[in-house]
Design brief:
By secondary structure, the chain is α/β, with parallel strands linked by helices. It contains 10 helices and 9 strands. Helix 2 packs across helix 8. The longest helix has 29 residues. The chain is globular, with a radius of gyration of 21 Å.
């Protein structure tokens, strides 16, 4: 048998040429969690990536030594000027955007009655309106290419509402409904849309990034209150692996017919399947009432 394999280092210009043929990913929220792990996986493949965070210094290490295919950019998705600038820089750097990953966002928990207006609006600015604005900025590039893939990181809470997470669920439900309409509009143009719906994963979502308004009304102690406590308590021990989630997202872009939904994690899968099955059963049980709401035929 032959000796050990010899790894040849390609000249820089040849590496750059190879990089120019790879897909370009634009990922928001890369400082921690899903965004960071996904960016690392994309770049490890030698693919091109625009890695963003509100402070570009927090993602500079991802691009260090890989400047021909990695580009670190400051981006606060609640700032339209920053969105426009980041997308323009990405197009100037790489000439295209093949995959947009709308990952930036965070969790806010409170009982519905005790939700604080300023916190609710701030969450929607980041999770909903910022995501909408960034997608609008990227769509002209994808339309011009007649190709692309928009991946929205929503949540199991985008399909199932839990006590204590009503406003977070509302933000993710909004993105889910909007994604249905987006897909109907852009699929004929060669652009795919997928919502990735994680359950509990070992990210900062339930730790440093989570915002909560404490439950003080005793009537909600056993519902929303318990949910807030359990969310904090599981931080760092969740079953979901962010690296495996990143690998699943990459696989989405390599299939010929990417799904509209991808639920991640056993807990999330079970919760969504149970909810959807129950919802369908309920709707079918009231079929006669539903159909009876039309004007009589004839």
């Amino acid at each position: 048998m032959g000796g050990p394999a010899v790894l040849l280092e390609l000249p820089h210009n040849e590496r750059s040429l190879m990089a120019s043929d790879t897909p370009v990913w634009f990922i928001s929220g890369c400082s921690t969690g899903f965004g960071r792990e996904l960016a690392k996986l994309v770049l490890a493949r030698g693919w091109r990536a625009v890695v963003t965070a509100r402070d570009a210094d927090r993602v500079a290490d991802l691009a260090e030594g890989a400047e021909d295919h990695a580009f670190a950019v400051s981006l606060d998705v609640t700032d339209q000027a920053q969105i426009d600038d980041a997308v323009a820089q990405a197009q100037a750097k790489f000439g295209r955007i093949d995959v947009l990953v709308n990952n930036a966002g965070y969790g806010y928990q409170a009982s519905i009655e005790e939700g604080e207006d300023s916190e609710i609006r701030a969450q929607f600015d980041a999770n909903v309106f910022g995501l909408f604005a960034l997608t609008r900025a990227v769509l002209p590039i994808m339309r011009g290419q007649t190709s692309g893939h928009v991946i929205n990181i929503t949540s199991v809470a985008g399909l199932v509402g839990f006590p204590g997470s009503g406003y977070y669920a509302a933000s993710k439900h909004a993105v889910e409904g909007w994604s249905d309409s987006l897909l109907a509009e852009v699929k004929p143009l060669g652009i795919a849309v997928t919502c990735v719906e994680p359950g509990p994963f070992r990210t900062d979502w339930a730790g440093r990034s989570l915002k909560q308004t404490p439950v003080k009304i005793a009537d909600y102690a056993e519902t929303a209150g318990k949910r807030l406590d359990s969310t904090r308590d599981i931080s760092g021990t969740q079953a979901g692996d962010p690296v495996r989630a990143g690998e699943a997202m990459i696989a989405l872009t390599e299939g010929a017919n990417p799904p509209r939904h991808l639920v991640l994690g056993r807990w999330g899968y079970d919760a969504v399947v149970e909810k959807m099955a129950g919802r369908l059963k309920e709707i079918e049980a009231h079929k006669a009432t539903s159909l009876g709401a039309d004007f009589p035929e004839g």
